[in-house]
Hints:
The chain is an alpha/beta fold. The protein is 32% helix and 24% strand.
Amino acid sequence: MVNIQEDIAVTTPTEPQEIPAAKPFLANERIVIETQRLDFYYNPEAHALKNINIQIPDKKVTAFIGPSGCGKSTLLRCFNRMNDLIAGAYLTGKVLIDGEDVYDSKIRLEELRKNVGMVFQKSNPFPMTIRENVTFGPKVNGITGKDELEEIVVSSLKQADLWREVKDRLDASALDLSGGQQQRLCIARTLANKPEIILMDEPASALDPISTGKIEETINELKKDYTIVIVTHNMQQAARISDYTAFMMLGEMVEMDSTKRIFTNPTVKMTEDYITGRFG
């Protein structure tokens, strides 16, 4: 089930503004995800996202920060249409991935979610073996060759920095792994589908510092090959692992810039107040 209770910002609808020009700090980047005049409603009275215009670059880590209920996870779930699972929810505007509107009626949802994988806050391995967890998606997508599936298992677990720890017990239950290992298995399961984009909704918030460090190391390696968007309440984590940071407040995108700029010299005073702990 999708947990939305902590991410609803009820606000008064505002008039849409013009789509802003691309920011100079993104001038040399290939844009993979873009939203245009995006408004999202859980119902007509719950306006959770207001006129979001954002561009997310290829093969970089972009972090969404902001207080609870500001819309971070809601926005993240718009990128692979996970919000479709919420009865009564709807949006206006556009969500473009590689220039194509993912809410167009021609879009095949299974293809979208294969291309835009997601790792949730709480690790959710399937109650099956480690190997079966990794091969589940490829099998659903029609891959049946034993050698090809084995290659996917090895490469996905290596990319998730889990192979050395589980290579001798691939047929053991995934539920026997530690919490940090389970989360890296969920990352491997996502990688097995060969996505272009990986969405992460607070992937380390329930983990101890050592496991969190492993997740962060994995993210730093993965961005060489994948576009990663991460929601985090941990500003130190955002500062450590992201290339770009977007600050949200009450369903609005307050400011996005390079992570260095956001944490050292933000343009908007509200961003500075949040970063320095004056509220939030």
